[in-house]
Task: structure prediction
Amino acid sequence: MEFFREDHIGFDDTVYAVSELTGHIRELLESSFPGVWVEGEISNFKLHSSGHMYFSLKDSDAMIACVLWKGRSSGLIFKLKDGLRVKIFGKITVFEKYGKYQLDVMQVVPVGEGSLQQAFFELKQKLFEEGLFDEEAKKEIPKYPETIGVVTSPTGAAVRDIINVISRRYPCVNIIIAPVRVQGVGAAREIADAIDSLNHLGCIDVMIVGRGGGSLEDLWAFNEEIVAQAVYNSEVPVVSAVGHEVDFTICDFTADMRAPTPSAAAELVVPDRDALFMQIHSFQESMSGIIYQNIQESKNKIKSISSSYIFRSIENRVKQTIQYVDTLEEKLTSLMMWNLERERLSLEKVSENLEALNPEAILKRGYSITMFKKDGRVVHTGTQLKQGDRIRTKFYKGSAESTVDFVDKED
Amino acid sequence: MKTENMTFEEAFARLESIVEILGSGEVSLEKSLELFEEGMELTGFCSDKLNKAELKIQKLVKEKDELQVEDFE
Result:
């Protein structure tokens, strides 16, 4: 076999055993590519019954075999399949027995977010068909919650934002934070478990599930099916607050309400306490106004009747009626003062113009409040009293105690 | 329902409807005074509820599969 003699000139004449040569190749390849990024399209994807994944990564001119061992595949945040463009970090290993080399995959990242987008749309379509986004299944968010659950990272910006907004707007609730990791391997499981746990507590009126902004990959836990199922199965209404305004996740679609950001979620779940105080105050004012008006109208009516000629003959009854209306007015005044005293204490901190309604001002005008001495109950009508009752009368300044001698029960 | 047994939401809703009824002018003076008295009691109740509750921040902890809440630092 001397035909190719010239071709050998200048080459080593050593003869290797196959395994020896392969061993050298292995050493060369493995030491040259102990960790390398490579980008391409997945093809021939196979999930083996053992849980290991085998596929090829290719471009238009070449192809490389890849293996993703089961232990590492659990960290995948999306499904691998043929046609996806991915970036893989791995090391080259040589499979000596068959003289093959392959890429031992350590990390897979989608390219241009296209892969994640695709996975997102597929899951969204699936869950939509399963009814997880149905409007009829959505629960109402309570208007005035007492206990609010928050599923998020205990160290993130989201939890701070939520606490800040609630302490400013409605500092009269109990917030229970269920601390979870919001990204990375196992985050989705933790989020789903936390939603279940808050349900088991039994005292949560509404919960916020979310995190601050990040890349699509960072937000991915909120796109996983187990989170969607936990949100859907939650008895407690869920407000989803993932990322920024522009980020939409599967969790958002499944939740009973979506908030554009964690701060916005906090604004949605609690009312504004100061506004409520103001509203309560305005209810008081309109009620008082209406009642005074009603009484004045009745008085005027009686006056006009009493001055008419026909009713002179029954003057006594008319007088009684006037007296009745006067009693009502007194009753009203004492009621108002009693309530205003309570209100004064509670409204002081929010209502600066309440001074005008200060019961002291009313007392100053010469009105007084009469109470039972024994329990301090306000006496609204003479009929509540009987001879011998001890009563206390409160004036603008000071008070007096007295005993009832005579009660005119005439109404 | 007795005011003291009401939730804030129920009390507030009742208050709103009392103001509405009073405003409609369709009740007698006697009845309007009754409503007024109830309304005043409700405003006191609602303000008290808002005032008395304090902000409490806690966290959920799972110990040996048992759920507990403790103070959030």
Observations:
- Chain A touches chain B through 50 residues (CB under 8 Å).
- The two ends of chain A are 138 Å apart (CA to CA).
- Chain A has eleven helices and 13 strands.
- The first strand of chain A starts at residue 36 and ends at 47.
